[in-house]
């Protein structure tokens, strides 16, 4: 599994190039795209396609080569293969057949964006692409609203506007948004803004909607509820209204699985 650049062709390790020059074949997402990168670095190994629509058949081809004693590299169009990219099924098939899978580290758009986001003092959750259909996308965003972590999304230019509008409409508008655009490329831009300001930032300049995007939404502001999720909060609020504090906390713990101590502290706050 060989990571390749996410834009700047120089962002590839010496070890990755040595590997690509030494293997017998390279499985890649798009052969023309790969050839451009490989030719640039003087890699002459033959390529064959392995993408989301042929991954099972292409994995069989990888296995056949390995069984002949050959070495195969797998690359994707950009970054680390398998991350929002094909590769996972091939890795499982190769490991199941008893061959080793060796990861060669390198660029990954999410990690690159996070490193310059100023949000790495928070924990983060990598989501990748949200669903393309509006209803499913909105449902997923709502399900993430209370997750106590920064959220990391991938997005393409044709959906950036809809996605940013949905994030701004459904999440706490005071959360910060970091837009990391065209990373490692000529028009790289890393912009930070309150989520509420994001739709007008996008609309202010047509260039703001061009290119490839990583979106990072900062973690939700801390509440006094410790680590209670939205469902535990809801159940506890209902029970506190009807029952003595200790009994409400105890019952809420049994219903939601949340910690009784945390529920009890929160129940005291709610009563107070
Ligand atoms: N495997 C890749 C990785 O390791 O990051 C991700 C592949 S995924 C199909 C492509 C998405 O990654 C793009 O739509 C964009 O969201 C993000 N991406 C890739 N290159 C980028 C770049 N140079 N700048 C910003 N985002 C990028």
Give an overview of the whole structure:
The mean pLDDT is 95. The longest helix has 13 residues, at 55-67. The chain is built from 11 helices and 8 strands. The strands form 2 sheets. Strands 4-5-8-6-7 form a 5-stranded mixed β-sheet, covered by helices on one side. A 3-stranded parallel β-sheet has the order 2-1-3, with helices on both faces. The termini are far apart. It has helices at 14-22, 31-40, 55-67, 88-96, 109-115, 134-144, 160-170, 198-204, 230-240, 245-256, 260-271, and strands spanning 25-28, 47-49, 72-75, 124-129, 150-155, 176-181, 189-194, 213-217. It has 3 domains: 14-96, Cobalt-precorrin-4 Transmethylase, domain 1 (3-Layer(aba) Sandwich); 109-217, Methyltransferase, Cobalt-precorrin-4 Transmethylase, Domain 2; 230-271. Strand 4 (124-129), helix 6 (134-144) and strand 5 (150-155) form a beta-alpha-beta unit. It is of the alpha/beta class and 272 residues long. The protein is 41% helix and 15% strand. The structure holds S-adenosylmethionine.
Chart the SSEs and their pairings.
Layout: H1 14-22, E1 25-28, H2 31-40, E2 47-49, H3 55-67, E3 72-75, H4 88-96, H5 109-115, E4 124-129, H6 134-144, E5 150-155, H7 160-170, E6 176-181, E7 189-194, H8 198-204, E8 213-217, H9 230-240, H10 245-256, H11 260-271
Parallel strand pairs: 1-2, 1-3, 4-5
Antiparallel strand pairs: 5-8, 6-7, 6-8
Bound molecules: S-adenosylmethionine.
Keywords:
Methyltransferase, Cobalt-precorrin-4 Transmethylase, Domain 2, alpha/beta, Cobalt-precorrin-4 Transmethylase, domain 1, three-stranded parallel beta sheet, 272 residues, binds S-adenosylmethionine, five-stranded mixed beta sheet
């Amino acid at each position: 599994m060989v990571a390749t650049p996410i834009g700047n062709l120089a962002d590839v390790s010496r070890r990755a190039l040595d590997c690509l020059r030494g293997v017998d074949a390279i499985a890649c997402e798009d052969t023309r795209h790969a050839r451009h990168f490989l030719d640039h670095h003087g890699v002459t190994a033959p390529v064959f396609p392995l993408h989301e629509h042929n991954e099972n058949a292409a994995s069989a081809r990888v296995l056949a080569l390995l069984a002949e004693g050959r070495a195969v590299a797998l690359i994707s169009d950009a970054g680390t293969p398998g991350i929002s990219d094909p590769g996972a099924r091939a890795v499982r098939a190769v490991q199941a057949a008893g061959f080793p899978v060796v990861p060669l580290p390198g660029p990954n758009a999410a990690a690159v964006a996070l490193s310059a986001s100023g949000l790495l003092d928070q924990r983060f959750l990598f989501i990748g692409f949200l669903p393309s259909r509006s209803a499913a996308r909105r449902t997923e965003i709502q399900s993430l609203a209370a997750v106590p972590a920064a959220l990391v999304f991938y997005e393409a230019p044709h959906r950036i506007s809809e996605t940013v509008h949905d994030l701004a409409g459904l999440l706490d508008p005071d959360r910060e948004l970091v837009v990391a655009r065209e990373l490692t490329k000529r028009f790289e831009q890393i912009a930070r803004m309150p989520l509420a300001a994001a739709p007008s930032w996008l609309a202010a300049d047509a260039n703001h909607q061009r290119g490839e995007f990583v979106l990072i939404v900062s973690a939700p502001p801390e509440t006094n509820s410790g680590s209670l999720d939205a469902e535990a909060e809801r159940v506890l609020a209902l029970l506190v209204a009807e029952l003595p504090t200790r009994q409400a906390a105890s019952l809420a713990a049994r219903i939601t699985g949340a910690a009784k101590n945390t529920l009890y502290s929160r129940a005291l706050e709610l009563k107070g």
